[in-house]
Amino acid sequence: MEYTKLNCCIQPDSEVNREILVAELGNIGxxxxxxxxxxxxAYIQTPDFSENSxxxxxxxxxxxxxxxxxxxxxxxxxxxxxxxxxxxxxxxxADKCLIRAPFHTDxxxxxxxxxxxxxxxxxxGNHETTSLMISEILKQDLKxxxxxxxxxxxxxxxxxxxxxxxxxxxGIDIDSWxxxxxxxxxxxxxxxxxxxILGGADKIxxxxxxxxxxxxxxxxxxxxxxxxxxxLKPYGKLIxxxxxxxxxxxxxxxxxxxxxxxxxxxxxxxxxxxxxTSK
Length: 279
Fold this sequence. Notes:
By secondary structure, this protein is α/β, with parallel strands linked by helices. The protein has 2 domains: 3-76, Alpha-Beta Plaits; 125-278, Vaccinia Virus protein VP39 (Rossmann fold, 3-Layer(aba) Sandwich), CATH 3.40.50.150. The chain is built from 8 helices and 14 strands. 40% of the residues are buried.
């Protein structure tokens, strides 16, 4: 898949303003982000890139900062090499889960060790939302449970669920880079009970799940939550992330309208993971 990279310069540049920009770009389809001292770099699949959407990103009265940008096409390439050279370092979450790449040789052992070829797919644990989701999974009793991982990315959440005893795991993603990556990573980790499906919420199998994970941006969560609810068993749990703390209330309102009960939330650097239970 060919991507377009957006190089954004913010004035005045601050952590808060960067977070606002990343959140707004995520709401219009940008999938992954990196930061340098001078820029916020955002990536979107080239067919989804729209200059018009960028020009109308903020309301007229939005005045906390301004940003300028230029774009460049990133050809289809070996994203594993890109991540190896620049971004992906071994990571331990909650003192229990090590996430590393096959090329890492210096790392600390942990109870769960997940080997990830990151690629362009989202999910190496280095982003706060993935870390939040992993922490939630580490709290759960998954033995014999059925799990659905929406927006599975690299398959990291699916793999951990399987390692923790899930009976079957289904991962779904709209990006072929992601589904191919999840399949490869399952093989790396000797996971045999993961089914990976290319598509969106319309591809959810006609079955019920004990747990559904959805680490996806806010607008998709709001739009697809009814489909997640329909796929939950009674007393099943929906764990969602991919949004900022300021978006928690509309997420809770939507879930409540659909009959879910709000259980808890955790937060890192204004990113949130929330847990809901079906009646």
